[in-house]
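Shipment paperwork, digital attachment
Item: protein structure file
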Amino acid sequence: MTPDQIYVCVLVVLALGLFIWEKIPPDIVALVILALLFLVPVGGKPVLASRGPDGPADLGAVFGNPALLTVLFMFVLGAAMEMTGLIGLMGQWFEARTGGSERRVLPLLALLALLTVASSAFLNNTTVVVVFVPMVIGLCRRLQLAPSRYLMPLSYLAIAGGMCTLIGTSTNLVANGVATAKGLDGFSMFETTPLGLCFAAITTLYLAVG
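Attachment content:
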C-alpha cells in the first residue's frame, strides 16, 4: 500500500472509533477528518489536493458529483418541510384520528408505513426518516406509547422504499456514478423498481407479523 492509502485507512479507523465512542459530535468528527485530508501532506501533497487531468479526479469533480449534490438537495428539502410546519400539520392530522386509543393508532401507523415506502422511493430515505421521526415521536409521547415500537420499523421501511428507484437512496446514486465514471451505462430511474417492490412488500409483511 502507498503512504496515502495507509493514511486514509488510518483516518477511516479513527473516524469509526470516534463515531462509536460518541463523546464527540459526528459532524465535528467528519469535519476534522475532511480537514486532515485537505491539509496534511502525504507523499508530497495532501490526499485531497487538486491533481492534474492524468491523476486522481480534482476537487471539482469530487464535490460536484451528481450523487453528492442530489443527497444534499434531499436534505435541504427535508429541512424545508420541517421549518415550514408541514410535519406539524401531518402530526396533527394523525393525532386527530387516533382518539387516544392504541387500537386506532396501529392502523394509522400502517398507513404511515405505506406513505414511508412510497415517499422514500422518490426522496432520499434518510430525508424521509428525518421528516417522519419527529412526527412519530410526538404522537407516541402524546398518546403515551413507546416510540421504540415504531421508529425502527420506520427506518427499515424507508430503506426498503429507497431501493425502488435510482434516487431513493444515496447508495444507488453512488453506484450509478461509479458505473458511468467507468464508461458503463448508467441505471434508469425505475430499473430497480421490480426488485425493490418485492423487497418492500416482504419487509412490510415481516414487520406486520413480527
